[in-house]
Amino acid sequence: MVQKDPVMARLKAETSAYHAKLESLPYFESLIAHQLPLACYVNQLRGLSIIHSVLETEIANTDSEIVAAVWEDRLRKLPLLKEDLDFFKPRVVPDDRAVVDAALAMTQHIRLRQVENPVSLLGYLYVLEGSTLGNSMHRPDIIQTFCLSGLNGSAYYTSYADQVTDNWNRFTKKMNQALDDPSLHDNVIESAHEAFAALETLYEALYPLTPGDTHITRINPEAGNHPMPEDEREIEAALAASQKAWDSFTYYREYFGERGKRFSDSDICWLATLHQFDADTVKKQVDWLSRLLAGRGMPTVMMECTLKCLHQSLVAAIPENEDRYAVFLTVADELRSVRTRRLPETSQKIIIEEFENQVGSKLSGMHTNVAQLILSGRIDEENGFKGASGILEEWYTDPDCFSEKWINAVNHTIQKVCKYLS
Fold first, then answer.
1. 3-class SS at 96?
2. String of DSSP letters for 353-387
3. pLDDT at position 2, please?
4. How far apart are alpha carbons 24 and 13 in whole angstroms?
5. Coil, strand or helix at 415
6. DSSP for 186-203?
7. Which of 198, 228, 200, 253 has its CA nearest to residue 51?
8. What is the percent of the chain where pLDDT is above 70?
9. For the purposes of burial, counting CB atoms within 10 Å of the CB of 167, is it exposed (0-12), middle (13-18) or buried (19 or more)?
10. 397: pLDDT strictly greater than 80
11. Could you tell me which of 279, 374, 286 has the C-alpha nearest to residue 330?
12. Is 422 helix (H, G, I), strand (E, B) or coil?
């Protein structure tokens, strides 16, 4: 019986032509000649951040034991890409729609493969992880072309530093071990071909550029396609509002983390576009998003806070549009009134104060507005917002994260709210 080659040997042999083809594209020729425009480089980082954000999320969340045997968090490149993009943020480099579209098309293939054949995602991982080898060669070109120092703006191109070969050997070993069944190879190789073809389309779009409208993926690589403000002042105001709302509830950071913050930023940028519509339309759109977020563990009091912060930030940024932005305050007040019709503010205040007295000022300062969240979640459930309380209450009664004293206070508050609502 003839022994088939390991999967990594087959991948190398059957995709070798792509490497030469990519390196011959004008983007890399311009980079090697140290003539690549900064906008091309920054848009490359943006395009890759879209791709990596989706691939890394899909792979990390897959149920495939084979994929899990290869994947490890140290393979993540999104943090490095974000670091580079943050460095270049003050340059205000415009988006290129063709680049964004190419990246989004690639993510659609990734998501489809996750549904139909998760193991084939390893073909994409092979291609993108293999790019670290080329990156180490091109890093001097990046540094010289854009006059960079240290890791500023080149963190992605410095993946694994001087351990590139060692890391590639480690990756090769894990791939060969996980894919020791030759019947799995063809799908992975097909996926790698697909990934290389998609990257070719991306790099063809990267040079020369045809800058277009600002795209939401600049804010959140996983946001997909939805509107965002065209006015940079409104974008900055929306992001400031997102931060202020985020800081109002430590639950955001505790439960949803950095990825949650990116979605908070992109959601509020979308909300900021709604001022062009009448109040009824805005209410319907906010209601839709509120129900969606409630199912993910975010009660409507968080949306109310977000809308108030958005109104405040927009008016401060562009005061001449105050009348137009007033709709956000109107809808926020309506969210509040819906809750108070179920449970008067005087009763809510009593419950909140009792909770804070039970846990003490130190804990209530560390975990802000928790009783308010519990109240809102339970009232939202009564109002048909399914899921608004379950995730939240499960989190705040987790004995691995919180003390017995805290959990008792949370349970007492839940019982109190249920009694008031009965």
1. coil
2. HHHHHHHHHHHHHHSTTHHHHHHHHHHHHHTT-TT
3. 41
4. 19
5. helix
6. HHHHHHHHHHHHHHHHHH
7. 198
8. 98
9. middle
10. yes
11. 279
12. coil
Is residue 201 within 8 Å of 135, Cβ to Cβ?
no
41 neighbors 27 (Cβ within 8 angstroms): no
Smallest CA-to-CA distance from 252 within 283, 293, 308 is with: 293
> Residue 90: pLDDT above 90?
no
2 vs 6, 200, 343, CA distance in Å? 12, 35, 75
Residue 164 class from Cβ within 10 Å (0-12 exposed, 13-18 middle, 19+ buried)? Answer: middle
Token representation of residue 338 = 């819906």
SS3 (DSSP) at 35? coil
Max CA distance (Å), the chain: 81
Asked if residue 3 has pLDDT above 60, the reply is no
Predicted TM-score (pTM) of this structure: 0.72
Question: What is the reported pLDDT for 232?
Answer: 86
Alpha-helical runs (H) found in 61-96 = 65-70, 78-88
Token readout for 325 is 């932005």
Q: Is the pLDDT of residue 7 over 80?
A: yes
pLDDT at 150 over 90: no
What pLDDT does residue 16 have?
92
Tens digits of residue pLDDT in 53-63: 999 999 999 99
Q: What DSSP line would sit under 42-61, residue for residue?
A: HHHHHHHHHHHHHHHHHHHT
C-alpha to C-alpha distance for 88 and 41, rounded to whole angstroms: 10
pLDDT at 312: 97
Instruction: Quickly tell me which residue has 């199912």 as its tokens.
Output: 295
Residues 6 or more apart whose CB falls under 8 angstroms from that of 391 comprise 255, 296, 297
| 3 DSSP assignment | P
Contact 246, 261 (CB under 8 A): yes
Q: What is the pLDDT of residues 183-217, one digit of tens each?
A: 999 999 999 999 999 999 999 999 998 766 677 78
Q: What DSSP line would sit under 248-284, residue for residue?
A: H-HHIIIIIHHHHHHHHHHHHHHHGGGGGS-HHHHHH
CB 405 within 8 A of CB 385: no
- What local confidence, expressed as pLDDT, does residue 217 receive? 81
**Residue 97 near residue 215, CB atoms below 8 Å:** yes
Q: Which residue has the tokens 């003839």?
A: 2
